Q: What sequence folds into this?
């Protein structure tokens, strides 16, 4: 994934898209007030300077799908583990809720289910059958919309062809108006995301921690 | 004076609590039981309604429960470790102290080990931490410090229970010999056929030597591994190479404090003034003073290095504890763990039983705060400021925390009710066929003579 | 199992697990979850149209099978049917180009909302207490028909009034037709954050009474005066997509952008340069830029044509608008004005846009005309990278004279005043279609009292809100997913667009499509409509509308194609357009407009702060506060969820002893509200800003009783020449009244990325 901070407008479409795609339950005002809201992707905002010379920075942060993910070795049950494709997968059924992985994740992108999720009927009809629901006591997080990856692959397989670059679109990427989010195969040097990851504007978040994230952030530019 | 009379008195004094029961015992057990029950109800409530009734939240996913876990595992270092070391160095004054110390280990380990379960999101699946054969070939992840915890605590618990149990065998035999009916039958089982033959003494002696040697590294490793729960995660101020020794030192520190409190209580309520002397408290007090200095050194070291390193995320946590929201707790901790012990235990005049107990209470509070302050401020201040957060404990956590203190007391009271809390046979060194096992009294440690 | 086999099994499993581990590269310790376990379901994608704002974005709806508890033919049961599971942008659609905004994503929850009205209701309690009884459609329609018949019999057809929101669509045309044929006045529309002032200005400057489409994708330098074009204004998804191209879509060329406003909006947050300005003086700043450009001979004053000629002093070189004098009025330093002006003239194509608060002052029209003139001066009108006007197809008007009525529409303010005038109520029957003026108008207009005086009220909305709860009869509409739906975007595309789609799923409840209801009622009237409708159903009407589209031959089968692709888009033959494509040519000169200072409702001594309500990112004017996904979406600038709040400058807050979350009373002449404070560096010291949207009394379980409504504080001031509400012209005073009480719910912790500096 690549995130172009120069074109991200902070609109939050990705946040809602992720909720809609991944059956993330809303927790309600009272729970949100005590830090139980779950946003697999969040748009961080940072103020810089003071009035009137003030600037604001937006930065969408989702699971960085680290190559050396600190959340993986600490998980006692392999609920958090690495797939052969290099994704950091989360097996909800295998999670016993130690929350250790969330502590170890430097990006704070893992969210714990404090209660069984509930939907006021018939809001449950909005649920995506391709994504499992998480019961109380498990950890959940951005999966890079693994169900969409799988779906696109199955489609390509059925049509007996290779996956096209850009064919897989996670929900957040799909929704983003300025196309600030780009998803693709980093193993393919020709893919758009690979090209962006080689940009001179590119960097990864908290590089010095050594997590080797697979999300590249392209710096915002300034010009007057 | 024949030698039989003191033996008789020793036996009477030390077995009296087992054989006589006052209403105060029932009242105490009742009150403590209510607290423990409240804790169990709280836990059941948490499982029923969901973990959400606790105070943890994004991103502070560990709070009181893990604090309690580390705290109680720390307290457990009171007993087995201290007692083993004292055994190894042949400190004669330890004799009346060892058992009441060792039992602290066993119980606080059990209580501490419950917290990883209590804090699980899905405690009913806790057995997935254990390696057991499953047709899915699913093993626990041996790279996870939590799995190391599982093994370390189990090992330490097994070792400590053995270490506690072995020297109890002759005393069980003593109780067996002085009781009748059901009690006699129970203690007969517990005494494992102890007859006091030289061969049996020899075996006991050998077993205790092996255990004493083996348990020390286990104890040290347990709290080192508990410290790994933190130092293995890339969290500001957790990733520290001194956490191993720092945690072990803290554990012994709080363990001694727990022991002093327990001994003072026993001395007062079981009227063991003749057995637990001021010198015991003074000696433990001196040991605690040393640990206070060591603890102070570690804390100073940790802070100084962080300050010099000046990493932005570390400094955020640093200032939060030093000056901002957590500062009141931080400075209370420093006062309790350093200033108070130094003043009370450093000045000979204050190093009385009362003084030691006051200092110990301070250390217990201070060490609990230390664990809390290691966990919560760091988790609330991890790298990306947008995701900063905080934590507010909820009733369920407070109730369970209080209940574990009550559970500790309750277990202790019950233990003292059913087992001689001071090792009778160790006190009767003279009768002992193997003086090598129990060193002779010396000028500094005149306790051997008192009852011999 | 005996002990021996247990041990064996342990050994075997242990060994195999170890072996399995050895064979795997680092970090891939297990392969016990085969990829094949994940079997995605089969979905059908259907087009639809987002109904949540006037942008008219095209949707792709993922439809999958589900078991639905519902009532069919009076029988409750479980029905297996295709239901919408996810909304995505229609990739073919020229407005949103595959993307959606957060609100569009959440539109799914309109259909599945637990508090939807599921069947016709008749008031059973006293008006406004929310007690209703279920009735059948037959009974409901008979009642409505008899009311209309009674009006017609009394020759009092003008006593029917229809209240709706301003959206371009064939549905609106149908309502208009119904009213015209019945003999009722045109519908009354009200948009709190509407762009009527801008439409009027564009009509004067460019001869197009329409909001513009800004060709950001090809622009190099953009100056936006208050227009939150990346957030809530106009066609935000289209503008967001174009903005992406402007910034990073053209190799080697990155467009620059300056935002002029007094409170940093989400759009302002993205600007290269953010220019705070004294509220209401945006037009002065625009003329200041123009003055520099003209006096430096970067452009000839006459290049602005008619748009310039409208401005007092334009031909004389705007001598009253030298940088120094503009600096004194606007608070923007003179050198900065010079620099901005030169950049604007130098880095072409450049364009100036205006929207939002600058239009909502008493001198809003002046501000808009000044900005228009600035755009015209650099020749950006109708040019690549400049201002465009999306071609509008002719509305489907079959009855003579209906089109001519459009401008005769009375304002809601006038309607309320008339109703409150003692005497016979001028409105006997009020129909309300999705509008909630009780919530979105200033209290001083007394709209609730006025509507309460109408003898009979019919509402078509999906939900009980502050206005529809006054209704005597509720005829719930299908949602957009359950019915034929269309929109005619006014902006967002350079080519003409008609968004249109058939139902994406079967209705969940006993609801009926409002256009169909109107057609049915029209047929049932005792005195038939003249002329009678030629269509039985709404889709027949849409089909006819598409058939009569003035499209080129290649697009002849627009109707069939539109049903699968979600609408029609392309070029209309110029001859067929309602308005010529580039009618930027002179037309009868309007009178020259001069700068007038913005008027405020009270004196700065008593009410020292400007009060700036703004459309919230999640709820716009409050019409979306009922959607839980939007309630829980963190606000882009404050990260607040489920809350309302006021924004205040840090220096002001410190002076008044106000800290984050403290409860603050905000008082205007019109009233007081209490809200928690958010300290925001992006706001001028003399401004208090507050998002609209919360403060509903009646609007489903998710919005009712939550937060405060800033509109309640607004003074009934209007823009001088258009009569539009001047919602930025109210002044307030504030006082701290208490500690944080938990009402402010924030997702974020830190405000700044670098730790605050320490002593
Ligand atoms: N009442 C009732 N009980 C039944 C049955 C019934 O019909 N009725 N059917 C029985 C039958 S036939 C079966 S097969 C069982 C199925 O029951 P279970 O064996 O409990 O299978 P699952 O429900 O799929 O849950 C196991 C979960 O573990 C996780 N998991 C599996 N492998 C791995 C792995 O390698 N790594 C990690 N990290 N996680 C993994 C997966 O997410 C999986 O969802 O139920 C049996 N029980
Ligand atoms: N959605 C969903 N699908 C699944 C699974 C899941 O978890 N969820 N699990 C998968 C797994 S692991 C399995 S094993 C399969 C199981 O799938 P099935 O093999 O279909 O198992 P059952 O659903 O138990 O149905 C078996 C049928 O056999 C009948 N039956 C019972 N006893 C006898 C008998 O003695 N003789 C005969 N002739 N018939 C008998 C029962 O009445 C029943 O109709 O389902 C798989 N499919
Ligand atoms: S949808 Fe795109 S532009 Fe909007 S906040 Fe997310 S990443 Fe940024
Ligand atoms: S971002 Fe966090 S959760 Fe995601 S892989 Fe990295 S450490 Fe794990
Ligand atoms: S919370 Fe779940 S995923 Fe995280 S470490 Fe614990 S068991 Fe693993
Ligand atoms: S990739 Fe999918 S799961 Fe991850 S943030 Fe985007 S929408 Fe959510
Ligand atoms: S801009 Fe308007 S029409 Fe488009 S998706 Fe957002 S709310 Fe819907
Ligand atoms: Mo199975």
A:
């Amino acid at each position: 994934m690549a995130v172009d901070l120069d074109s991200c407008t902070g609109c939050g479409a990705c946040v809602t898209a992720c909720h809609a795609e991944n059956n993330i339950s809303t927790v309600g005002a009272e729970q949100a007030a005590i830090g139980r809201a779950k946003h697999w992707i969040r748009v961080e905002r940072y103020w810089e300077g003071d009035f009137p010379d003030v600037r604001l920075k937006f930065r969408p942060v989702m699971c960085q799908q680290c190559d050396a993910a600190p959340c993986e070795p600490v998980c006692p049950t392999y609920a958090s583990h690495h797939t052969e494709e290099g994704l950091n997968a989360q097996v909800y059924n295998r999670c016993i809720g130690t929350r250790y992985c969330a502590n170890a994740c430097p990006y704070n992108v893992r969210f714990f289910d404090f209660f069984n999720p509930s939907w006021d009927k018939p809001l449950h009809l909005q649920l995506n059958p391709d994504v499992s629901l998480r019961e109380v006591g498990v950890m959940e997080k951005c999966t890079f919309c693994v169900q969409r990856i799988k779906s696109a692959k199955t489609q390509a397989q059925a049509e007996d062809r290779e996956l096209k670059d850009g064919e897989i679109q996670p929900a957040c990427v799909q929704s983003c108006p300025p196309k600030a989010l780009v998803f693709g195969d980093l193993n393919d040097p020709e893919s758009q995301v690979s090209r962006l990851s080689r940009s001179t504007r590119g960097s990864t978040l908290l590089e010095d921690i050594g997590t080797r994230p697979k999300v590249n952030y392209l710096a915002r530019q300034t010009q007057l | 004076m024949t030698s039989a009379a003191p033996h008789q008195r020793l036996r009477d004094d030390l077995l009296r609590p087992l054989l006589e029961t006052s209403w105060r015992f029932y009242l105490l057990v009742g009150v403590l039981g209510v607290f423990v029950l409240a804790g169990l109800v709280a836990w059941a409530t948490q499982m029923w309604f969901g973990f959400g009734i606790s105070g943890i939240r994004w991103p502070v996913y560990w709070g009181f429960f893990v604090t309690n876990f580390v705290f109680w595992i720390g307290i457990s270092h009171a007993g087995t470790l201290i007692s083993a070391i004292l055994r190894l160095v042949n400190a004669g004054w330890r004799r009346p102290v060892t058992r009441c110390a060792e039992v602290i280990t066993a119980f606080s380990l059990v209580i501490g080990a419950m917290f990883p379960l209590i804090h699980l999101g899905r405690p009913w699946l806790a057995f997935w931490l254990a390696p057991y054969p499953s047709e899915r070939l699913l093993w626990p992840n041996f790279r996870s410090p939590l799995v190391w915890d599982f093994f370390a605590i189990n090992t330490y618990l097994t070792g400590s229970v053995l270490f506690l149990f072995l020297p109890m065998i002759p005393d069980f035999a003593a109780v067996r010999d002085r009781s009748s009916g059901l009690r006699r039958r129970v203690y007969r089982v517990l005494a494992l056929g102890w007859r006091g033959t030289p061969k049996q003494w020899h075996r006991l002696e050998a077993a205790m030597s092996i255990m004493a040697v083996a348990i020390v590294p286990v104890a040290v490793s347990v709290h080192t591994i508990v410290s790994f729960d933190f130092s293995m995660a890339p969290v500001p101020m957790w990733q520290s190479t001194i956490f191993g020794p720092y945690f072990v030192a803290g554990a012994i520190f709080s363990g001694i404090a727990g022991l002093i409190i327990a001994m003072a209580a026993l001395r007062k309520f079981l009227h063991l003034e003749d057995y637990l002397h001021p010198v015991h408290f003074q000696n433990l007090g001196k040991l605690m003073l040393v640990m206070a200095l060591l603890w102070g050194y570690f804390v100073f070291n940790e802070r100084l290095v962080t300050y010099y390193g000046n990493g932005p995320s570390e400094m955020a946590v640093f200032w939060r504890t030093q000056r901002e929201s957590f500062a009141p707790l931080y400075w209370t901790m420093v006062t309790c763990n350093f200033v108070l012990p130094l003043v009370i235990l450093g000045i000979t005049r204050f190093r009385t039983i009362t003084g030691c107990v006051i200092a110990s209470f301070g250390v217990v509070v201070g060490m609990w705060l230390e664990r809390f302050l290691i966990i919560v401020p760091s988790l609330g201040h991890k790298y990306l400021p947008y995701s900063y957060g905080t934590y507010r404990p909820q009733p369920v956590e407070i109730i369970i925390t209080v209940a574990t203190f009550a559970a500790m007391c309750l277990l202790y009271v019950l233990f003292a009710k059913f087992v001689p809390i001071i090792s009778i046979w160790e006190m009767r060194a003279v009768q002992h066929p193997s003086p090598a096992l129990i060193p002779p009294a010396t000028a500094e440690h005149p306790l051997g003579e008192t009852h011999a | 199992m005996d002990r021996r086999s247990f041990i064996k099994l342990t050994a075997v499993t242990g060994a195999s697990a170890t072996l399995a581990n050895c064979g795997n590269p680092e970090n891939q310790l297990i392969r016990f979850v085969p990829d094949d376990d994940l079997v995605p379901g089969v979905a059908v994608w259907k087009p639809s149209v987002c109904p949540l704002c006037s942008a008219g974005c095209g949707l792709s709806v993922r439809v999958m099978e589900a078991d639905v508890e519902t009532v069919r033919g009076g029988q409750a049961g479980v029905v297996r049917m295709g239901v919408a599971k996810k909304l995505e942008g229609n990739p073919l659609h020229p407005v949103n180009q595959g993307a959606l905004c957060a609100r569009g994503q959440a539109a799914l929850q309109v259909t599945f909302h637990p508090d939807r009205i599921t069947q016709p209701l008749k008031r059973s309690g006293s008006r406004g207490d929310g007690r209703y009884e279920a009735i059948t459609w037959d009974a409901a329609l008979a009642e409505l028909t008899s009311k209309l018949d009674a009006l017609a019999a009394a020759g009092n057809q003008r006593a029917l009034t229809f209240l709706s929101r301003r959206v371009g669509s064939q549905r609106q045309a149908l309502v208009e037709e119904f009213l015209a044929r019945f003999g009722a006045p045109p519908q009354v529309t009200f948009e709190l954050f509407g762009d009527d002032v801008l439409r009027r200005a564009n009509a004067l400057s460019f001869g197009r009474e329409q909001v513009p489409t800004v060709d950001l994708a090809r622009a190099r330098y953009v100056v936006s005066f208050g227009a939150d074009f990346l957030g809530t204004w106009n066609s935000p998804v289209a503008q967001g997509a174009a903005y992406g191209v402007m910034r990073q879509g053209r190799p080697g060329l990155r467009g620059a952008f300056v935002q002029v406003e007094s409170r940093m909006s989400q759009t302002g947050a993205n600007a290269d340069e953010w220019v705070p300005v004294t509220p209401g003086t945006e037009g002065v700043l625009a003329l200041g830029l123009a003055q520099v450009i003209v006096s430096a001979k970067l452009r000839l004053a006459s290049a602005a044509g008619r748009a310039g000629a409208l401005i007092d002093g334009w031909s004389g070189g705007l001598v009253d608008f030298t940088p120094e004098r503009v600096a004194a009025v606007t608070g923007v330093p003179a050198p900065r004005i010079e620099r901005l002006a030169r950049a604007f003239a130098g880095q072409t194509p450049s364009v100036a846009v205006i929207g939002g608060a600058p239009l909502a002052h008493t001198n809003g029209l002046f501000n808009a005309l000044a900005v228009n003139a600035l755009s015209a001066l650099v020749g950006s009108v109708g040019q690549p990278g400049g201002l465009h006007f999306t071609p509008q197809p002719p509305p489907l008007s079959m009855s003579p004279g209906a089109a001519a009525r459009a401008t005769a529409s009375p304002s809601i303010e006038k309607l309320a005043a008339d109703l409150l005038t003692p005497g016979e109520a001028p409105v006997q029957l009020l129909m309300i279609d999705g509008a909630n003026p009780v919530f979105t108008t200033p209290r001083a207009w007394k709209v609730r009292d006025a509507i309460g005086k109408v003898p009979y009220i019919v509402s078509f909305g999906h939900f009980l809100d502050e206005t529809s709860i006054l209704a005597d009869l509720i005829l719930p509409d299908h949602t957009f997913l359950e019915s034929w739906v269309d929109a005619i975007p006014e902006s967002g595309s350079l080519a003409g667009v008609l968004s249109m789609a058939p139902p994406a799923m079967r209705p969940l409840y006993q609801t009926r499509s409002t256009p169909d209801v109107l057609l049915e009622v029209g047929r049932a009237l005792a005195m038939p409509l003249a002329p009678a409708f030629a269509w039985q159903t709404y889709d027949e009407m849409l089909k006819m509308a598409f058939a009569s589209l003035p499209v080129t031959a290649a697009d002849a089968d627009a109707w069939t194609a539109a049903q699968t692709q979600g609408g029609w888009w392309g070029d209309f033959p110029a001859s067929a357009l309602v308005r010529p494509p580039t009618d930027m040519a002179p037309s009868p000169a309007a009178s020259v407009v001069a700068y007038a200072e913005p008027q405020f409702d009270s004196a700065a001594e008593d009410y020292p702060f400007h009060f700036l309500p703004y459309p919230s990112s999640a709820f716009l004017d409050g019409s979306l506060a009922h959607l839980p996904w939007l309630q829980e979406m963190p606000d882009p600038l404050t990260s607040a969820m489920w809350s309302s709040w006021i924004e205040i400058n840090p220096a002001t807050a410190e002076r008044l002893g106000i800290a984050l979350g403290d409860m603050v009373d905000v008082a205007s002449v019109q009233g007081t509200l209490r809200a928690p404070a958010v300290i925001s560096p992006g706001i001028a010291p003399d401004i208090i800003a507050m998002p609209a949207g919360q403060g509903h009394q009646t609007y489903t379980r998710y919005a009712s009783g939550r937060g405060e409504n800033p509109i309640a504080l607004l003074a009934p001031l209007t823009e001088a020449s258009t009569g539009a509400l001047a919602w930025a012209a109210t002044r307030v005073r504030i006082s701290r009244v208490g500690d944080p009480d938990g009402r402010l719910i924030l997702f974020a912790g830190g405000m700044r990325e670098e730790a605050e500096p320490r002593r």
Remarks:
- The radius of gyration of chain C is 28 Å.
- Residues 3-23 of chain C form the longest helix (21 residues).
- Chain C has five domains: 3-35, 44-104, 121-190+411-477+512-533, 196-388, 609-751.
- Chain C touches chain A through 99 residues (CB under 8 Å).
